[in-house]
Amino acid sequence: MQTQPKASHFIDGQYVEDTSGELIEVVYPATGEVIAKVHAATPAIIEQAITAAHRAQKDWAKMSGTARGRVLRRAADIMRERNHDLSVLETYDTGKPYQETSVADATSGADALEYFGGLAGSLTGEHIQLGDDWVYTRREPLGLCVGIGAWNYPTQIACWKGAPALACGNAMIFKPSENTPLCALKVAEILMEAGAPAGLYNVVQGMGAVGASLVTDPRVDKVSLTGSVPTGKKVYAAAAAGIKHVTMELGGKSPLVIFDDANLEDAVGGAILANFYSSGQICSNGTRVFVQKGLRAAFVKRLAERLGTAVIGDPMDPETNFGPLVSARQMEIVQGYIAKGVAEGATLVCGGERLDKPGFWITPVIFDGVTDEMTIAREEIFGPVLSVLEFEDEDEVIARANATEFGLSAGVFTNDFTRAHRVIAQLEAGTCFINSYNDAPVEAPFGGMKNSGVGRENSKAAIEHYSQLKTVYVRMGHVEAPY
Ligand code: NDP
Question: Record-annotated residues binding K(+) 2 (predicted)?
């Protein structure tokens, strides 16, 4: 497959290059080979993108919602038709196994385009009768939205932000992570092909500095970031200076609580889905696995057995279900945490070896005997490291699960349904699961509480974050003024 894009950026309906921008080498995580080179956006490129987006947005907003939605739904169809190629590219960009990318990335992006394309025609304000007078509200777009993505889901993030933004009549400039610059360019191409006007959806490459200059530009009305909490704090502060709208999808250290009456195989399966998909590089992962005392030994034994059957190897092989980490830097971060876990007294049950081959490979890790104050139980690792923590009763585990700055996700496994709902109601997290983990259908709101974020992606809730209401009071009689 040709992995080198025609040019670094996609602006005003075409590929655009400016080689004076800093060089970014795109590395295939499975081999460490350079598979493409792009350049970071220069101020001239950023200016071009903002000017094009601004112009395109005005006409796009004048179209009916149904006509806008038709473009998005056509783009969804094209994405599904090209799922194979897009999935291969996603695997090159991220290293995630094709077995995953072929069902979770372009497909999820297409779901967002289809869902918000369907909603676009039914976006309305309301009518409020006040005697003879009345008020109506107009649901208007925000204008120019900037999307900034993390590297774990480059296609999905580009669509989860782009689809609701465009459905509501906005334009978008999307900046992918410098680690994974390839996939969003394809999303831009497909939207154009589906009939989006030139300039409506633009992609510019670059590091944090490019994101920062987009966020601070006074012509930008909204910023939607998917990234870590420290970056989120910076971007939120910069957006606040311009009173811009924000969506912040940030990191997590989510609890997965397994009671001793749970179905063991389901709980183990849930813990696997909560920790090892995408080699653990998922924001919502349930990395603090609290297991009730009576079940802990059996749980750890069965988890290790099942993890032993993971197929680690060539991500393009459809049999492979565990791939490398995204970069050498991320691998070093994860190795650092594994070393800390051992040094602080956790029991390394299995995994943590670096495979003796090129690329960024670490085998999946189970730590047992983890306690709340250990670094691996407090900080987001963003790698395949599962920590088992033992608990005795419900009140204790709720307090411990909530003792974190994060609040992205939480899960409960139990066969006692009253308890399941009681516990979930008390967990401080935005996206929760009962006897399941990490499902993210487009119909359901997704996002975090506490330091894990602001706003929600997906579902009808996202509409509130990409549109604003204008209130219009209509007086039907004469005006009575005091003087
Ligand atoms: P980072 O926070 O390092 O980067 C996120 C994005 O922000 C990147 O595109 C980055 O550019 C850009 N950026 C960095 N600094 C600035 C700045 N000052 N102004 C504007 N943009 C900036 O996150 P990672 O890419 O390392 O992704 C991993 C993190 O993302 C984890 O914490 C994870 O939990 C979180 N995440 C959250 C999700 C959610 O939905 N809640 C989903 C997926 C991931 P560059 O990379 O080029 O430096």
Answer: 243, 450, 453
